[in-house]
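Task: sequence design from structure.
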């Protein structure tokens, strides 16, 4: 039994995706709006409507009543979608984190920001710091913007670990990396090379321009391309950002196809982006193919090695393993088994022993393992897991 030193035990995991600023969790209203449709879009400018309400009521009260009804229906639809989204947020890594930590005697609180922004996370951090938590485990929406708040937390004696998307090295004690940056980049570049036939144009559809993990993967992909002649016939024509919003990711996909008619492959290292792009490409019968990082449950209908499917194969990591390793790492910090220093070792339950290594940003990390490939041979079985 682990000897905990909890004051008010709990952990905070935030981000668009548990794993994407990552994998896909609809935490922002902007993302949820996709499901309410466009019927009442004109009513979103409620203030504007109210300013002209007098005129509308005098000349067309029936129109105003109908508009009001649409707005109410839309609000109800958003509320219903929020309920569905909250259920969807129970992802494999979150469940594994909670189950692992609770089995060791911890109490885990999972909190999501209102939007996929640093400002939204800062608001949550303000609240958490005042509640005397023992640890905060965070997936950062921005590399640098959270530093002041996370340093404040550490000054208050709160342990700070991160997973999936790391804040800068001064904003954390350790980062739990789902897969090595170079390993992810290598897998994605080799997929682009294979799917394109070894030549032609490709583009990258990322999450946000501030996302630490995606930016690191993209930079590593560029380095790999420049350092090996086997990629010399590939041309990276554009890097665009869908901001981890389904509709914006769809729009960016459409724009890429319009701007680059000869585009062969889109690589989307974001679970939200790859799902949106997969649907658009397949629905429109595009010859452009897709790879990247995605959830098997969302990508199953788009995965196949024929003309009818938009994605031959894609990658992700062991999400359950990421949740478990993040929990064990945070527990080790709380119990002072580790401090996050280079070359320290600890045991992560049934995952085995881990050694803390140097991260690319000058901080430290523990790396879960290599990315996993999902293809037509295993997609059905893996979709049952996450």
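Answer:
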């Amino acid at each position: 039994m682990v000897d905990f030193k909890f004051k008010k035990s709990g952990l905070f995991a935030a981000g668009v995706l548990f794993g994407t600023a990552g994998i896909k969790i609809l935490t922002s209203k902007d993302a949820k709006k996709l499901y309410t449709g466009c019927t009442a879009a004109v009513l979103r400018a409620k203030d504007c409507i109210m300013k002209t309400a007098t005129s509308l009521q005098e000349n067309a009260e029936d129109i105003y009543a109908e508009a009001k009804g649409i707005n109410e229906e839309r609000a109800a639809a958003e509320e219903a979608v929020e309920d569905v989204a909250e259920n969807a947020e129970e992802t494999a890594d979150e469940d594994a984190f909670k189950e692992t930590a609770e089995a060791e005697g911890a109490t885990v609180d999972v909190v999501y920001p209102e939007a996929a922004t640093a400002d939204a996370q800062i608001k949550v951090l303000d609240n958490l710091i005042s509640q005397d938590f023992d640890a905060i485990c965070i997936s950062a929406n921005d590399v640098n913007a959270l530093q002041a708040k996370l340093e404040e937390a550490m000054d208050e004696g709160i342990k700070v670990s991160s997973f999936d998307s790391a804040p800068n090295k001064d904003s954390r004690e350790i980062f739990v990396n789902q897969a090595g940056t170079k390993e992810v980049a290598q897998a994605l570049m080799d997929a682009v090379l294979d799917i394109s036939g070894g030549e032609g144009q490709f583009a990258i559809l990322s999450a946000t321009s501030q996302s630490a993990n995606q930016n690191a993967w993209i930079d590593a992909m560029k380095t790999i391309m420049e350092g090996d002649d086997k990629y010399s016939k590939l041309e990276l024509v554009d890097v665009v950002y869908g901001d981890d919003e389904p509709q914006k990711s769809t729009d960016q996909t459409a724009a890429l196809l319009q701007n680059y008619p000869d585009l062969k492959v889109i690589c989307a290292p974001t679970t939200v982006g790859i799902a949106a792009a997969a649907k658009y490409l397949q629905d429109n019968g595009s010859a452009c193919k897709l790879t990247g990082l995605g959830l098997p449950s969302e990508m199953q209908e788009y995965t196949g090695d024929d003309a009818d499917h938009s994605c031959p194969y894609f990658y992700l990591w062991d999400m359950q393993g990421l949740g478990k390793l993040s929990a064990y790492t945070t527990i080790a910090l709380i119990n002072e088994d580790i401090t996050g220093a280079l070359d320290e070792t600890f045991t992560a339950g049934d995952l085995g022993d881990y050694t803390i290594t140097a991260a690319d940003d000058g901080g430290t990390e523990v790396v879960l393992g290599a990315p996993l490939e999902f293809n037509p041979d295993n997609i059905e079985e893996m979709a049952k897991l996450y």
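The chain has three domains: 1-27+89-177+318-365, 31-88, 181-316.
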